[in-house]
């Protein structure tokens, strides 16, 4: 891990000596201490809240509707989410947009899978800050018990949005699916999903494994936290 990083009212350090989450990176935004997790999630221990973005449930169904045979990933996505919630002990989940991928993806199989997952996690409070895909796909079924709200929302003084451009001040967002390209000796390079801190807005990597990531042109004050299989690493 690298040493401390500071941008305005933000700072970041590697986490050492904690039983969980191993491989996390600590980040303070506007006085709120957060942990960036290798599971593509943000954990707020003080509030017992996990934040994720861009699940894009039903995307595989859209492909199958176009006769493109891709395997369903809903169960694996929900299993990963369960792992994060179980490990942190969170009692609230905030989704920063794009829970559902498209109206054509609203298929019976996916609805049944999520409904069963919700039944097993009935005590969990879930909030969805609507993203552009949610606006097109429509709100989730009522029996999922998800409170759907427009952006921006406030959490512990942080502005929560789906689109980073909608954030006013220090906050968090999704939408861009950020990826960083790391270059090694010669022509070696590696693409990794990342958390991107840009102009005091933390942009989360997509939680879904079935979305395209974007290698963004870096700005001078950007801070990048690359995500490997088991840790988050500050790379600048």
Summarize the structure.
This protein is α/β, with parallel strands linked by helices and 236 residues long.
What's the CATH first level? Alpha Beta
Q: Which spans of ≥5 residues are poorly predicted at pLDDT below 50?
A: 1-12, 14-19
Strand content: 25-35%
Oligomerization state: single chain
| CATH architecture tag | 4-Layer Sandwich
Number of helices: 4
Strand order of the largest sheet: 1-2-3-4-5-6-7-8-9
Task: Give the N-terminus to C-terminus distance in angstroms.
Answer: 10 Å
Number of domains: 1
Q: What do these coordinates show?
A:
This protein is of the alpha/beta class and 236 residues long. 17% of the residues lie in helices and 33% in strands. The longest helix is centred in the middle third of the chain and has 15 residues.
């Amino acid at each position: 891990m690298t040493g401390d990083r500071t941008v305005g009212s933000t700072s970041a350090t590697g986490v050492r000596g904690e039983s969980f989450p191993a491989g996390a990176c600590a980040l303070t935004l506007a006085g709120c201490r957060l942990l960036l997790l290798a599971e593509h999630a943000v954990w707020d221990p003080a509030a017992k809240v996990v934040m994720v973005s861009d699940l894009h449930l039903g995307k595989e169904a859209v492909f199958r509707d176009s006769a493109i045979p891709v395997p369903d990933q809903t169960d694996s996505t929900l299993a990963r989410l369960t792992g994060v919630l179980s490990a942190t002990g969170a009692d609230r989940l905030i989704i920063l947009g794009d829970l559902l991928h498209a109206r054509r993806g609203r298929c019976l199989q996916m609805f049944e899978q999520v409904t069963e997952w919700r039944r097993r996690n009935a005590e969990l409070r879930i909030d969805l800050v609507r993203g552009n895909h949610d606006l097109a796909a429509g709100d989730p079924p009522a029996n999922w018990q998800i409170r759907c709200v427009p952006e921006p929302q406030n959490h512990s003084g942080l502005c929560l949005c789906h689109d980073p451009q909608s954030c006013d001040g220090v906050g968090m967002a999704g939408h861009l699916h950020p990826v960083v390209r790391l270059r090694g000796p010669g022509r070696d390079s590696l693409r990794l999903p990342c958390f991107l801190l840009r102009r005091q807005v933390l942009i989360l990597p997509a939680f879904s494994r079935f979305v395209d990531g974007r290698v963004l042109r870096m700005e001078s004050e950007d801070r990048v936290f690359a995500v490997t299989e088991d840790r988050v690493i500050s790379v600048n």
